[in-house]
């Protein structure tokens, strides 16, 4: 099955290929931890208990359907894609992750201490996301920090995080937006490594858009940060006999990806999926759903998405040991295509103040709903609202293929760095009871 599918996959490079990514800014230093741990340990313990549940159930409103249209079609564009020094100042505020604080509810604040790393010093940042290297002239988009409404997050402290990750295995699973977060994390962490040669891809592989597995080893800290490309999370197979002619691939919604067994044995596991669940990337390409060995030609894409997520839920519940592995699921990453045109991507110089419903997405809703029901702890990284403001953060035409504008992926440094800051703040806060 595996090898058959690989062969098949090679024959169809066009639709394997595609998401790129973007940029974002970040910063922050998890501040000097000792103080936090000592003074805040009781607080953290209480917070971990209650906020864990809170993060799993962020408030979420019904989706606005008019928005669904533009976001569900706008990634078509990707079908054509081919392939400073660390801030030293220390925050004076204690992290205040009390149970009332939803760190995903907040605003962007201008902050000159960002970005968190210099792209030129990170060999694992792919060209397509390095907007400055690709000719972007304005750099205000690099200088924003995320400020939660009801609490502060600790600044990113690379030394503390490197130490925290010692001996661990971090695994990202998903589409190119997961690859972006993976690259962002690697670059944020590399900033704290003096001997850059001690950080390497395990098999010496270069980063490409279709590669299924990449692993960066931080040898001096004995940990790896890996990325598995699994755009739907569930397993495609060749078209069954006697299927209608338009069917080219059956996406088996009831079977998790065949590489999923490689995700199990890790310490931190971060999922995403969403950007490929569109009519143009599925039905128009001859990809249809299958459940229980039967084609479900009439099933809607949203229905397929929900079914796949339930398969993911059963997999997590049966395979993941919650005392070993901390699981996260990132919600839909906001896009900024102007309505009506897939080609219409205007990257602004400043974040926008009105998100016009873009802070919600139907897939984020589904993810939040399904995660709620998982019997082991899973934390939603609800990045949809914060991304909605950042129309300034996309790759636009500053990618490796300037002829195809991109309002889906983010420049790096940029917005995905903040996803990692929040991820680390959650990990470190539940580590310190
Ligand atoms: C979505 O787009 C299609 C075609 O582009 C259009 O016919 C339909 O009315 C749109 N739906 C909404 C809810 O805007
Ligand atoms: C991809 O590019 C081809 C030619 O370069 C064009 O005909 C096609 O419409 C493009 N597809 C999308 C989805 O933009
Ligand atoms: C590296 O980490 C692994 C756990 O991932 C551990 O078993 C091993 O002993 C560590 N090696 C060293 C040299 O610390
Ligand atoms: C990676 O890219 C470099 C430069 O393009 C090339 O020299 C090298 O052979 C590539 N490595 C692999 C494993 O493909
Ligand atoms: C390295 O290569 C081995 C053998 O081909 C493969 O199983 C493994 O997944 C690769 N690891 C990474 C991180 O690329
Ligand atoms: C969650 O579980 C409840 C109760 O078992 C069920 O009614 C609901 O449909 C489930 N939601 C999802 C998204 O699976």
Automatic annotation (TrEMBL):
Signal peptide: none annotated. The keyword Electron transport does not apply. InterPro entries: TBL (IPR029962), TBL_C (IPR026057), TBL_N (IPR025846). Its main location: membrane. One of its GO terms (cellular component) is membrane. It is a single-pass membrane protein. PANTHER family: OS01G0880400 PROTEIN (PTHR32285:SF63), PROTEIN TRICHOME BIREFRINGENCE-LIKE 9-RELATED (PTHR32285). This is Trichome birefringence-like N-terminal domain-containing protein. It comes from Cinchona calisaya. The lineage of its organism: Eukaryota, Viridiplantae, Streptophyta, Embryophyta, Tracheophyta.
